Amino acid sequence: MGKIYPKKRSRKKKSLKAMIFGGLFFCSLAGLAYFLVWSPYFWVSRIEFEPDKPPRYYRQDDVKKIVQEVLDDKIWHFIPRKSVFLFPAEGIRSGILVRYPEIKSVKAGKKFPNAVRLAIEERTGVGIWCQLERPTAEALAAEEAKISTSSPDTSGILPKTEGKKIGQCFTLDQEGVIYRESALIEGDFVLNIFSGKAAAPPRIGDEVASWETMDFILKLKDGLPGVKPAGGLSLSAANFEIVSAGDLRVKTSVGFEIYFNPGYSIGTQLGALQMVLDNEIKENYVSLEYIDLRIEGRVYYQ
Question: What are phi and psi of 290, to 5 degrees?
Fold first, then answer.
């Protein structure tokens, strides 16, 4: 019986073919990657904005410069980020938000073959927030002397908080974020909110009130005029003071204060307020100092 020898030459040919095809595939892949990354055809050359309307707080040319600075950066010092396949969406987003606290959100997307599309949403102010500060005894005495001689009456706008004065003021959005410095503005159509002094000075971009508290305040501002003391006058809020998460104080247009708790139903509290005005306080509301609704199921007044 004859011997059978392995076909070594055939195996060598298959191995050589696999190496050749593998090399060709790698070269093709490398060439494609080089073309997609280094080809000027895919480099970002256009920046589009959505919606295409005049912005309030920024200039589109300035935003384009921020985007271009991010795109001019390189990965490992030699791979360009300006290819539409590698553009850093998060870097663009954070760069714009840091520069413009007035902008609420940025979405950066690519548009083939060589464009970046930006969807920018600006913040909308709903009121003015001011920090309340407690001055030293010496400063308080000097301020009282000044008020008694020359200062105008601010009782209609300042919160009823003994020994406190108003510090910095900022424009506030509905999420409780401050984003522009502002003066305190008096008026029936202006929402003024005050808070006590925090551990650190307020900075633009800080959240000074929670979303839940802001939602409560906005609903309360709309709902309070529906409460009517004896005589048919509607109540309205002159200002709000956030004392704590469960203590929101409202100075009314009539003069007395109302203490609310944002932790439970606003409808329940307004109903209790109307009930105590109708059944107990009646015409005596003109001499009221406060009505306290902070404890659910109970009402105190003085």
Answer: -160, 160
Q: Which residue has the tokens 């109708």?
A: 278
Q: 83: which DSSP letter? A: B
**CA–CA distance from 34 to each of 9, 30, 31, 75, 206 (Å)?**
37, 6, 5, 14, 44
Q: Is residue 203 part of a domain?
A: yes
Give the span between the Cα atoms of 241 and 130, in whole angstroms.
Answer: 9
- Using CA atoms, how far apart are residues 99 and 161, in angstroms rounded to an integer? 36
Q: CB under 8 Å to 120, separation ≥6 — which residues?
A: 49, 50, 55, 58, 63, 96, 103, 105, 106
Residue position matching structure tokens 């009130």: 209
What confidence tens digit (pLDDT) does each residue in 22-61 have?
A: 665 555 555 555 556 667 888 888 999 987 778 999 999 9
Provide the domain count of the chain: 2
3-state secondary structure of 99: helix
The answer on 146 and 106 residing in a single domain is no
* 51 upstream amide cis, omega within 30 of 0: yes
